[in-house]
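ok so i was messing around last nite and threw this chain in just to see what happens. nothing serious, just curious
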Amino acid sequence: MRPKAILGGLVALGLVGVMASAQDAPPVGIQTGPATVAPHWTKNTSFPTSVPEGAAFHIVERGDTLWDIADRYLDNPYLWPQLWDHNKYITDAHWIYPGDPVLLPDLALIAAGAGEELALGGPDVGEEFGVEGPGGEAEESVALVPVTQETALQCAMYVTREKEDESLYIIGSEQGGDKVALAERDIVYLSKGSNAGVRAGDMYTLHHASYTVHHPVSGDGLGKKVETTGWVKVILVQEDSATAVVEESCIDIHAADYLKPFERVNVPMIVPRPAADRMTPPTGNVNRYIVDLQDDGAIGGAGQFVIIDAGSADGVTPGSVFSVYRVMYPSVPTPRNVVGEVTVVAARDDTSTAKITYSREEIMVGDQIELR
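result:
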């Protein structure tokens, strides 16, 4: 069997990664922009052709993996999802190519242990990889499982401080005003067409800006909550409008929902381990709060998504796991009442979307969280 390139960082605890075959390239190491990226063959065809001034970057060499690059420059290979998130042109974390530029996040903002033991990725759900022993032979296997289903993650909400471009939106449906809430297979009309670059076959996600999320303790605004309502495929284009079919609806779709180019999500893979409980000692790591719940609910439970006020600026990456707890009598204070656990599925600068992977009691806005 020919070697298989596993370039997403699957060498955890000695996991043996097999390198992609490619032309030899002299080692270069870390560089700083401004710089122009040389033309090269790669399947990541949307790679940046230039690097801005002051930005640190590494040009991929033969045998590199995101795991290795994170270990080399971030001093922690488990931070490979941070690299991936910082280089969105890489469509599959398993595949990077000699000549690809890997931009490095601000090293001073990376928490040393973020995602440790859990931020692992794999090419297939539940695939097992041998663990290399002292003698170089595989001694055991580690089964990786997805945090959530891909469709559920594609539908997840998020919080953003930046106002998103809402200029491409749904005008209405083929059924006119007779149908208000839209769903799968409905035909919708869009506000732009070929003059704006819309093409038949294009895929777009649909979004609805909801309310401003406020911190449960300080009251500060954290950004606008954005709900993903579904996604559509363009089937017909005119100069100033287009027709699309709803491929998937997450919640009810309405006129005025705006569109963004479809970006396929990547579900974090983790190694299962027992959840924290009342006997689990504090870690002293990042300590924050749950600030919003899926569907604007008052309480949440296992399987639902939440928003937390910790993000990539805190070293949080997809796969980071937080214990959820309360102190019932803070004036004493009494010991922590651990009520559940959440796993990050998508990280932004100062907020993240996480899934409740375990709940012993209801989970609410204002519950505290601590990075395990």
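not much to say yet. DSSP finds three helices and 22 strands in the chain.
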